[in-house]
Amino acid sequence: MSPEQRRTMLVQATIPLVIAYGRAVTTRRIAQAAGVGEGTIFRVFADKDELLDACVTAVLGPGNTLAELAAIDLAKPLPERLTEAAEALRADLDRMGAVLGALHTPGAARPQPRAGREQPRLPDRAAAMASTRDALADLFAPERDALRLTPERTAQLFLGLLLTEVAGGGEPGDTTELVDVFLHGALTPDTGKA
């Protein structure tokens, strides 16, 4: 396993532990969860804080979201594709919030800045949003001829609606409802008929 693969494996093993234990998670517990010796962590990370910074960078990046959106079967009906996409996006946003919340809880011990230590390089949020929008546009592309707007613009509106719903505290079970209203509008089918 290359050092980069080992880093990725350790980060993925650490994220659920960060959610559960915050900064109090031990490198011993991380090593057990990853199935490696504790020394392995320190061969690819300078210290636990660097590993935790890598977890933050991982959850803020679009990689997991893009992989989940790319795995959605384009042969499925559009409502199913969008429901899967909405659930994947919601899960990633929830995970992001859980990690950030666990690491930045008021009163939690924070690492002291060290001389010569670089601050973690966070993903470019605009680029992450654009790549997410483009992945969603791919889900709309098979219905291109039936859309009122381009797949890209439709994806942007869908993403905006989903983010607003999540920020407003919508329940996870609301994704089917959100997709239905997005695709069919807010009015009942009989409204406006003479």
Could you please describe the fold and organization of this structure?
The protein has 194 residues and is an all-alpha fold. 64% of the residues lie in helices and 0% in strands. The chain has 9 helices and no strands. It has helices at 3-21, 27-34, 38-44, 48-60, 63-70, 78-103, 125-140, 151-167, 175-184. Helix 4 (48-60) runs antiparallel to helix 6 (78-103) and helix 8 (151-167) packs across helix 9. The longest helix has 26 residues, at 78-103. The chain is elongated, with a radius of gyration of 20 Å. The model has no long low-confidence stretch (mean pLDDT 87).
Topology:
Layout: H1 3-21, H2 27-34, H3 38-44, H4 48-60, H5 63-70, H6 78-103, H7 125-140, H8 151-167, H9 175-184
Summarize it.
The chain is mainly alpha-helical and 194 residues long. The protein has nine helices and no strands.
